[in-house]
Design brief:
CATH topology: Rossmann fold
Number of strands: 7
Shape: globular
Bound molecules: 5-O-phosphono-beta-D-ribofuranosylamine
Distance between the termini: 40 Å
Strand content: 15-25%
Largest sheet: 7 strands, mixed
Number of domains: 1
Helix content: 25-40%
CATH superfamily: Formyl transferase, N-terminal domain
Order of helices and strands: EHEHEHEHEHEEHH
CATH class: Alpha Beta
Radius of gyration: 18 Å
């Protein structure tokens, strides 16, 4: 008899495909990633938030690395090391940030060898930062969008993997516009992560040889 599919997707044998999702807020992007059946092995949070309940309902382990200091003397490096250790306990190979509100130190990124993804509610490089949606409204733009990109130590920077345009309507508030953008993110981010994970270890020349196999030739 075939084994039943686990609720949150099958983890392929390549450990680099073991996915962590980092969230701090309402977690609706996390919900979409879970619904897409991505191989999420842990959800990391920096504060109590709805994302915890979403992960628990899907029986996905939660790594709560709570940030208690929001002052200028916040020890970002120590926090980053603690988060890396919590993810290492789940043998995480790829990280998807989904509304994670703590900017991580530069030590985070080399650990995952370029496999940290982010979704941002603007058409990068325009409107970086946490306030992208109100900034678009304040500037009187008639269109904005969302961007999925590889994350680096520069906030909302790094190679762009996918972008989609979203209209701004007269009378939009931050809430209505952000919700319209998130509607697109909930489709674009899972699809982009799925393609990214599938490409891990695949040969760029389409031969199907893994990078490791090529290295042995
Ligand atoms: C998304 O718009 C994402 O781009 C941004 O934070 C939001 C997260 O939304 N970084 P939610 O908490 O998953 O609803």
């Amino acid at each position: 008899m075939a084994s039943p599919e686990p609720a949150h997707g099958t983890v392929a044998e390549d450990p680099r495909r073991r996915l962590a999702v980092l969230a701090s807020g309402t977690g609706t992007i996390l919900e979409a990633l879970i619904a897409a059946g991505l191989p999420i092995v842990v959800v990391g949070v920096d504060r109590p938030c709805r994302a915890v309940q979403i992960a628990e309902a899907a029986q996905i382990p939660v790594a709560a690395v709570e940030r208690r200091d929001f002052s200028a003397s916040f020890d970002r490096e120590a926090y980053t090391v603690a988060l890396v250790e919590a993810l290492a306990a789940h043998r995480v190979g790829t990280v998807a940030m989904a509304g994670f509100a703590t900017v991580l130190g530069p030590a985070f990124f080399p650990v995952f060898e370029g496999r940290v993804l982010n979704t941002h509610p603007s058409l990068l490089p325009a409107y970086r930062g946490w306030h992208a949606v109100p900034m678009v409204l304040a500037a009187g733009e008639t269109a904005t969008g969302c961007t999925v990109h590889l994350a680096t130590s520069e906030v909302d920077d790094g190679p762009i993997l996918a972008q989609e345009r979203v209209p701004v309507y007269p009378g939009d508030t931050e809430a209505t516009l952000h919700e319209r953008i998130k509607g697109v993110e909930r489709r674009l981010y899972p699809a982009t992560i799925r393609a990214f994970i599938a490409s891990i270890g695949a040969a760029p020349d389409g031969t199907g040889a893994t990078t490791d196999e090529r290295g042995r030739r």
